[in-house]
Structure formats: structure tokens, C-alpha cells
Amino acid sequence: MCKCKELCTHSIPEATFRCWMSKASTYMAATKPGGRPTKNGGRATLHAQGKGVSNNFSRELVDFMESVRQGEHFLTTAHLVTWLKTYQPDWLAEYMSSKPTDERAYKSLVQWCLRFANRHGTKMPLLLIVKGQPGGDIETEEIPTYPPGPFYALQKTAYMNQRVWNMYLREVLKPELDCPSILLADNLKCHVSKKIYKIMRQEMYSGAFLQPLPTNTTSVLQPLDVGVMGPFKSMCRTEWIKEGKVVTVAEKRLAMIKRAIKVWNDMKEDTIRKSFEKALNIFEV
Fold it and tell me: InterPro entries annotated for this entry (predicted)?
């Protein structure tokens, strides 16, 4: 009983503890070598699914993927498998032999290739919307002094409107596209206007399609809201505490811009990829 009370102090319900105790022998057997087999032929475990076959050729494979795309070819799993057969036969043999059946090995290899290709994207440049009058002093005197890298836009309320969104598509998104892509957007009027569909259809030569999210689903389906903005804002607050005092409005604008750039550069690309997995229910197989 004393153990039960101790676990309850860690917010573990008594019923949960008693359930654990009733299955203690099963749990212990799973942690021993040669423990109880599962229906798939593996071994029961209290941890993850075991260590996969690691590799030390990621950079070389990424270079190969880029060369295929630069040649204006669609990258397929067949390209990746052929490369592995040619340059990494030992790794491929070890990977295939680590699976219980040939069928499972083939399916796992295809999924590995898909995950590898999808996870080696890069973060897009920031678009920073600054409050100010287009063509005014901020645009002519301040913006030229801002750090290079992001794209800057002036808008009188620092809000996304049709002009800024058009600029984003043409100057930020378009140069980043090198294969057919889907652009997810909420139902803000400027995001889904007829003008935008026309730009997507006529100007995105690599093939890009606009997919509006269902109404009132931004908080659960938009990757930015689901997994990026929370960490981004938290990191911005931490950086703000480290900064020195600024006095003028211009200094505050510049400090905020530098803060956003640093945080975006520090944010891991894996965080952004995982936000898509979580929001869109895309998980590795």
C-alpha cells in the first residue's frame, strides 16, 4: 500500500498502479533477452521499436537527390534505391536482412526512401511585415539598413493583405519551388481570392496548388499554429530578456527584426517538419 501512495504523489492513479502490478510478470518478461514474441514475430518491449540501421552517407545521398532535381527530373524511390544498390550495397544488405521477411524489407525500404527525401527540406526565408506607410520614410530610410536574408514588406497596420500576399507568392514562394507542391492556407480573404488562384495557375511553373483549410480548423490543421508558433514565441521571449535597452521606435523595430531572424535561424528544421506530421496526421510507417 505504501508503494501505491508513493506513486499517487506523482499523479499516477491508484487504478493504473494496480493494473501495472497485475501485469508485472508480462512487463518483466518483455525486458529480458528472448522475451515473449509478438504476433509480428518481434519481441515485446517497453521502449521504442529498436534501433534502426544507421548510415553515414546522408550528405552524399542528398547531393544525388539535388542533382536529379536540377536535371528537371522527378525524384522517385527508384532513384534512391538504385543509388543505394550502386554506392551502399553493404548498408542495403544489412538493412534488408534486419527485417523479418522480404516483403516487409521491401515495404520498409520504400518508406525509408520516402522519409529520407521528405525530411531533407530547408526552412523558407522569413517574410517580415513592418508597420508603416508604403513608400514612406521607413521604407526608404530604415529597410535598406535591415539585415539581409528575410523579405520585408510595409503595411500600415502590419497585417497581411492582398498586396503583401501577392508579393509573398512571387518573391518568396516561387523561387523556392522545384517540384509540384501544395500550399496550405487559412481562409483569410486575400489568401483564397480569385487573384491568388490565377497567380498559382499561371506563374508557378513547377506546379503549385492552393489548398484552403476547412473553416475554423486553423488551430488544429495549420502546421504553423500547431507546432511552430509556440516554440517560436517562447524563444523570442527568451531572446528579449537577453537584449539591451532600446529607446526609439526605430531601435525597437530593428531589435524585433534581429530577434525574429536569430530565433528563426536557431529553430530546427525538424520542428517544422514534425508540425506537418502532427497537424496533417502524417506519420512515419
Answer: DDE_SF_endonuclease_dom (IPR004875)
